[in-house]
Structures are given as C-alpha cells and as structure tokens.
Design brief:
Length: 269
C-alpha cells in the first residue's frame, strides 16, 4: 500500500509544473501566443496586482485564480508565501501559472522564484513578456537604442531592497554620458530627488528625459522634459506609479514629435 501511495505521489510530482509568464505592460493585445497557451492550460493562476484583469479572460473556467498582489509601496503578499503556494500546488499535480506584469526576469523576481522551485524539484518554464521599459519608449514613439544617439540601454530599479546600499546614480550618469546609453528607470518616482541629484553630477542639465505612466494602457500619460526639471515635472503633472523614467538623447526624438523646435541633444546643450 505504501508503494502505491509513493507511486501516486511521484506521478503527481512529475505531472505538476510551474510556468512563470510575463503578462506584458498592460495592453492585452501585447501578450505572446505562448503566454496565452500557458494561461489557457493552467489549473491554478497566481496573479500579480499589475496584471490587466482582461488577460484573465484567457483562463479556463476550471482554473483557480489567486490574487497575490505585489506592488511597491503597498501591502503585498509575502514572497515566501507565494513560493510556498507554487510548490504545494505543483506537488499536488497542478498546472501552475505565475502571472506577472512585464517580464518575469526583468525586476519581476522570476530568478528568485525559479531557483526556489528548482531546489524543490519542481519543473519550471519561463515565458517572456514585453517589459514596461520597452513599452514606455514605444509610447514616446522613440527607440531605446539608436545608431546616432544611443549605443545601448541600461535597465535599473530606483527601489532598492531595505538595507542595500543606495544606487550610485552619478556613476550611472557617467556611463550614460561616456558610452552614449539610454537609462530606463523602473520604480523610481519615490526616490526621484536623489536620482535626479545624482545624475546631474555627471550629465548635462539639458539631457532629455521623460516619464511614462501606465504605458500601453488607455490611461497612459507621457510627459517629456529635461533632467534639470524632472522632479518638478513629476510634481506638476501629479504622476504616480506605475511609471517608467527614460533619460537620454533618444528622448529628444519624442520632444521633436510634439514640437519640432525642441530637437536638441545633451551634447549640443
């Protein structure tokens, strides 16, 4: 009898798996085909707070949907509890989908979750989603890289884990200036004063900047400015999270779209 019980347990464990799925920046039409397939076959969906509810229309009627809100500055479901839920459900033979805003491996804690699941013997798959930093630049109508203005892009969080050393924004600014990079800042509104102050130690005050709130959604709001007026612009337009900050000469293209007279790069300032 014990052998039969162990065999059943092993079959459940081999059948259960977890897929970390990127739900993209918000627009349901930006979901990948692979993401839709994963959502449809899921028996359990653990859904982050920033996932557009319309995306859940792809879930099967038999699916159990569990909201596990994760948003900076708000009361969130503990990460350890989410990981425990995934492990228990997978060991019970469930087809688990962890549905995250953006991409699981770009500021989505997907790496941590995958490591915990693999350590527990759970099979893990990753389905990429369009990250909000990319969607934000698209909202401006400009690229993150450009042969004339940006040879690369840096994705960085403005929200460090408690107890971690503060980001050296001056050093990042030097890299942006020296290597002609675009700087894309996630979760940066709360610390914008320190971010702006640090970047201004290395970058010209006229460096183009933009803030994009709710990228890809109907309520999207995008404003352009320069580095010297970044904090002021955020206050004046009452911008709040979720929002992306883009700093670099590519933003001058967005300024030119709205006003041809503003096409000025930082090096010309």
């Amino acid at each position: 009898m014990k052998y039969a019980t162990d065999e059943l347990t092993n079959k459940r464990l081999s059948r259960g798996r977890v897929t970390l799925v990127g739900a993209g920046p918000g627009d349901p039409e930006l979901l990948t085909v692979k993401a839709i397939k994963a959502i449809k076959r899921a028996t359990v969906l653990l859904v982050d707070d920033l996932v557009n509810p319309e995306i859940l229309a792809h879930a099967a009627t038999r699916s159990r949907i569990v909201q596990v809100g994760k948003r900076g500055g708000c009361i969130s479901t503990p990460q350890s509890f989410i990981e425990k839920l995934m492990i228990l459900a997978a060991k019970d033979g469930e087809e688990v989908v962890r549905l995250k805003g953006g991409d699981p491996f770009i500021f989505g804690r997907g790496g941590e979750e995958a490591a915990h699941l693999r350590a527990a013997g759970i099979h893990v798959e990753i389905v990429n989603g369009i990250t909000s930093g990319l969607a934000a630049s698209t909202a401006l109508g400009v690229p993150l890289t450009h042969r004339d203005h940006a040879h690369g892009v840096v994705l960085v969080t403005g929200h460090n884990r408690p107890g971690e050393s503060a980001t050296d924004w001056a050093a990042l600014g030097c890299a942006v200036e020296t290597c002609q990079l675009t700087l894309v800042i996630y979760m940066g509104l709360a610390g914008i004063a320190d971010i702006q102050s640090g970047l201004l130690k290395a970058l010209p005050s006229a460096t183009p900047a933009a803030v994009i709130q709710h990228a890809s959604l109907p309520q999207q709001n995008a404003v352009t400015c320069n580095l010297a007026t970044l904090s002021q612009t955020i206050r004046e337009h009452a911008l709040h999270s979720p929002a992306i900050i883009v700093v670099g000469n590519v933003v001058a293209g967005a300024q030119a779209i709205s006003n041809p007279q503003t096409l000025t790069t930082a090096k010309a300032a």
